[in-house]
Amino acid sequence: MLTDMSHSNDPFAPTVHTAHHWLNAVAQAIGTEDHHFAYRVLRAWLHAIRDRIGVPGSAHLTAQLPELIRGLYYESWIPARTADHSTGAFVHQFAHEANVSTREVPGLASAVTDALTDLCSPGQLDHVFAVLPIHLCDLLRGTTAHLPAPEMADETIEHSGLEHRLRLLGDAVAVLSRALMESPPDGLDTRQRSRAAQQAHNLIMAEDLTTTPSSANA
Fold this sequence. Notes:
Blueprint: H1 13-30, H2 35-62, H3 67-74, H4 87-98, H5 105-119, H6 124-129, H7 134-141, H8 150-181, H9 190-206, H10 213-216
Helix pairs in contact: 1-2, 1-5, 2-3, 2-4, 4-8, 8-9
C-alpha cells in the first residue's frame, strides 16, 4: 500500500528539483514565465541537436543532463535515423516541436544554448558542437552569417521541411516492406503485422505527418 512521503523522504525530490532548476534557467534565458513554453523550446533544442550528433555525441551530452531532462532527450528517438544537417531542416524541426514561427528559432536556439552552457560543465557543449557543421554552430550560438537571406528563408525552410517529411514517410514504408519480406511463406503472422504497423504508426505520429507543413506552423 502506497503512503504519502514528505519532501525530505521522497527519493525523486532531488531529481525533480534539479529539472525545475534547469527549466527555470531556460525560461529566464528566453524571457518567459510560461514554463510550458520553456519546456517545448528546451525539448525542441534537445531533439534538433540529438538527431544530428549521433550516438557517441548523445552519450556525451546526456551525461551532463539531469535525469528527467535526459529522459526528455531520448523521447521518441530513432538512433539509426540521421536528420538533414541543412539550416532549413534544423529550423523547421525546431519550429515544429516548439510550436513557434521559423523566424523565432535563431533567437530561441541561441538563448537555450547560453542557458545550457552555464548549466553544463565548462567546455562540454563545445565538444558536442564540434561534430556539427559550422552553419548550425553559428545558429546555435547566435551568429547568423550562415542563415538564408530573409527573402529566401521561408522558401528554403518549407522545402527542407517537405524533404524531412518525405524521408520519414519513406522510413515508415521501409518498416512495413521489411516486415513483408521477412514474413513466413504462408503469410505474415498477426503479431508481426501488428508490430510493423505500430512502428510505422510511431514514425508518422512522432513528427505529426498527418498535417501539412503550412498547417503545422500556423
